[in-house]
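User: Predict the structure for this protein chain, please.
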Amino acid sequence: MRLFRSVLLLTLLAGAVPSAVLGWILFHMAGVELHLVLAAVLFALLVAVMLSAWFARRLTRPVKDCVRGALDIARGHFGRQVPVTVRNEIGELAYTFNHMSRELETYDRENRQLIAALEAGYLATLRSLASAIDAKDTSTRGHSQRVSELAVAIGEELGLRDGDLKTLAYGGLLHDIGKIGIPEAILHKSAALAEDEMEQMRAHPAIGAEILRGVDFLRNALPAVRSHHERWDGSGYPDRLAGEAIPLVARIVNAADTFDACTSARPYQAVMGLDDALTVLRKLRGTQIDPAVCDALLRVAERRGGSATDVHSEFATGIARL
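Assistant: Here is the predicted structure, written as C-alpha cells:
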C-alpha cells in the first residue's frame, strides 16, 4: 500500500507540473478568460490523477501478488502461482517467482516421499526387532505388534494427532525390548516367579529405555517403554508414578498390554474371551488403568464386538494408515 501511494504521488506530481505550465501559458495568452484556464487546468489534473492511479496500480499489483505468494510459501503452501499481467521487469519478477514456487513444490513433494520411505523403513525395522523380542518368549509371539495396533486404536479414539499416534505405534512395538536383558529361564518359567526373579523381570522397562536412549527418532517413545508398567494408583514400577504424572503414551500402552495379556495364551493363564477381558479391564479402571484410557478402549472394543481376535484384526487397520 505504501508503494502504491508513493508511485501515485510521484506520477501525480509529474502530471501536475505540465498542468500548471499549461495554465500559466493560457492565463497569459490574450483573449483567454480565467474560468476557461481554470477548467483546462482542472481537466488536466483530473486526467493526471486517473492516469497516475492506473499506472500505480498496474505497477504495484504484481508486487503485491508476489508478496502474498511469498507469505503462502513461508506457511508451507508450495506451488503458489501469481498472475503475470505485465511484460516488463515486474512481470519478469512474477515469472521468476512462479518458477521458484513450482521448484519448491517439487522439492517438497520429493522430500515428503523420502521421509515417508524412511519412516516405512524405520517401522519395518522396528517390527523386525519386535519379532526378535517376541521370539525370545514363544508364549508372547505377536504380542508387541498387537499392543502397537491396540495402542494406536486407543489413541485414535482419544483424538490424538498423527505424530502422537506414530509415537504410540513405536512405543507399543518396543515396550518390551528390555526383555532382551532378562534371562530366558525367567521368561519361560510357567510357575510363579520368585521374588528375586520378579525383581529381574521388573527391570525390563528401565533396560528398554536405556537401550533406546541414544536413538533420536524414538525419543518420544521412551516414556512408553520405561513407564508402561506404572499404575494409575502409584503402585507400579519402575518409578512408582501415579495418575497424570504417568506419560499418556505409557498409560495407553499399559491398557493395550493388559488387554492383549488377557486375550492371549500364556503359561500362567488360559485365554479369556472378549467379555471376560472387558470385565477385567473394568475392574482395573482407576487402579491400574487411567479411567479415560480404559473407557476409550472399552468403547472401541464394544463397538466392534465379536471375539478378541476380531478386535485385534480391526485395530490392525489403524496402524496400517501411519
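The chain has two domains: 2-107, 137-320.
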